[in-house]
Structures are given as C-alpha cells and as structure tokens.
Specification:
This protein has 312 residues and is an alpha/beta fold. Helices cover 48% and strands 11% of the residues. It has 13 helices and eight strands. Strands 1-2-3-4-5-6-7-8 form an eight-stranded parallel beta barrel, surrounded by four helices. Helix 4 links the parallel strand 4 and strand 5. Helix 1 packs across helix 2, helix 2 packs parallel to helix 3 and helix 3 packs across helix 4. The chain is globular and about 50 Å long.
C-alpha cells in the first residue's frame, strides 16, 4: 500500500489517458500496457479519471471498473490519485470512497462551474470536505481555463488553514507564474502549512514553475520521461541541464497544447509509442486528419533529431 497523498508528495504524477477501442468501449488490455509504459518511464505516480482521461464521458459503472482495474494492474508500484470532480457532492463522495477503498492514495477535485466568488468556492469545498470526512487527502485542481472558476491566493490560504485534508494544489492557471510565487511567498511570510504543488498545462512552463517552487508535474504529456528527467535534474541543482532537455522537446510540447485538439495528439503519440492499441477518443472528441498525421510525424522527427544532436 502506497503512502497517502500528503504535503510532501513530489515528482511526476502522469495524468493517464483512458484507452478506448474503436467502438468506444474501454480497452482494458491497453490500460495494462499504458500502466507499464508509464511506470517504465519513471513516473512517481499516476492520476486516473482526470480531464485528459475523458472522465466526464464515462458512466459511474465504467469509472468504478476502470479504477479497480488500474489499481490492480499498478499493484502498489506507484501511488494512484483518482479524479472525482462531479456536479453532485454525493456522487463525488461515492467515487472517492470507491477509489480509496480500492487503493488510491487521494482524490483530485476541480470546482464546479458557477462559483464566481471566493465565498462560494470556500463554501462548496467545505461541503465537499464534510462529505469526504477527514481521512481522504485532497488535491485542489486549479484550471480556470476549463472550469471558469478563479480562486484567489488569500482564499486558498484560508482553505489550507481550515481544512487539513487539503494537501496538494494542482496549478494550471495561465498566466500563473506570479500566482505560484505568491502562494509560496505568503506561506513563508505567514508561517502557513506548505502544501505540495504539482503543475499541469502539458508541462509547457515546467522549468519556470520549478524555479518558482513547484514540487513536480501532474499532466498528460505523452513523453513522460522528459518531465521525470527535468524534475530530477532541477532537484539536483542542474538547472541548465533541465532547461536544455526541456527545450529539446518544445516542438511536441507546444504542438500538444492546441485547445480542443491536443488530446487526439497525445493519444496518437501514445499509440505510436506502443502504449496503447488505438488513439480513439470517446465521442464527441477530436480526431486527426491525414494532414495532421503527417504534421505530427514531422514534429516528432524534429524532437528526435534534436535529442540525438545533444546526446540525449
């Protein structure tokens, strides 16, 4: 059994894709190969049923089945966080219990839409924490580009004070470097509990976010070994080595970040890398055109050539 999610959690927690067969059903065989791919690339943990995992397109029964399957396949080799965001607090609490009972180490929760004041955000999470109970660690997913909900640092700090089970902040606000700095600085100035911060957005700003105090990454980038090595080098003080490696992957990092399209790019890349059998997204979802496939091939070739050039 892995240690529960806590304030000291660090490294790369890859956001897992949910592999589908071409007919839209979940491909459990590919779920197995995906787990082995991620672990082979050195990730510190795996996050399932996130936005990249197309969680909103799964039925409750599918979410439970996929969770149990993934936990069994991982078999304690790395910790698993489960995304449980739901418009209904009871639904959220039910899936949280299922995940924790199966062997997950914590839950990730994004705010529901319409929480347009700090007071509404605070009160919503107060209800969530009450429903979960004190023993389930929580990661707050801050992704206003998708949720439309913006949390202030003062409100986040108040929640950290009041809710001990809030142990991690997934930072995806954009632009957000200043927000990350303010979170770290106010915690230091006011002697607040320091929570773990893992960053998203495809790793697009990872070196800068590590400079600003992030503890690692939680994203679905299809080359997780880059994230792992950049975080490791940065932790060892090899800042220039981390930046050099990151820069080599920039063509594919930026290409993946196209809104409404990046999921198809990631899944096709994972398919090409042997991690799963099909790049299918569940309808309604993006699909690459023949020209897109050619373009992706050219981008990957650029990255591979650059890695060879710098001896990576």
């Amino acid at each position: 059994m892995s240690e529960l999610l806590n304030e000291h959690t660090k490294g790369v927690f890859i956001i897992s894709a949910t592999p589908f067969n071409d007919n839209g059903s979940i491909d459990m065989d590919s779920a197995d190969s995906l787990v082995e791919f991620y672990i082979d690339k050195g990730v510190a943990g795996i996050t399932i049923l996130g936005m990249m995992g197309e969680a909103s397109k799964l039925s409750p029964e599918e979410s439970e089945q996929f969770t149990r399957h993934m936990v069994k396949r991982v078999d304690g080799r790395v910790p698993i966080i489960i995304g449980v965001t739901d418009a209904g607090v009871n639904n959220l609490a039910k899936l949280s219990k299922i995940g924790m009972d199966a062997g997950c180490v914590g839950v990730m929760i994004a705010p529901v839409g319409g929480l347009n004041t700090d007071e509404k955000i605070y009160n919503y999470y107060a209800q969530v924490f009450e429903a979960l109970g004190p023993d389930i660690p929580v990661c707050y997913q801050d992704y206003p580009q998708s949720t439309g909900v913006n949390i202030s640092i003062s409100n986040l700090n108040q929640m950290i004070r009041d809710f001990p089970q809030l142990v991690m902040f997934k930072h995806e606000d954009c632009p957000g470097l200043g927000k990350l700095s303010r979170l770290r600085q106010t915690a230091e100035d006011d002697n607040l509990r320091r929570v773990s911060v893992l960053v998203g957005n495809g790793g697009l700003y990872l070196p800068h976010e590590l400079d600003r105090g992030a503890d690692g990454a939680m994203t679905g980038f299809a080359w997780p070994e880059m994230l792992v090595e950049v975080v490791a080098r940065h932790a060892k003080g090899d800042i220039e080595g981390a930046r050099s490696l990151f820069d080599a992957y920039l063509p594919i990092t930026t290409y993946e970040q196209q809104i409404g399209y990046g999921l198809a790019v990631r899944k096709e890349t994972l398919r090409r890398r042997g991690a799963m059998a099909s790049a299918a997204t569940r309808a309604p979802g993006p699909k690459l055109s023949p020209y897109d496939h050619q373009e992706l091939s050219a981008v990957i070739e650029r990255v591979e050539a650059r890695l060879k050039e710098i001896g990576e």
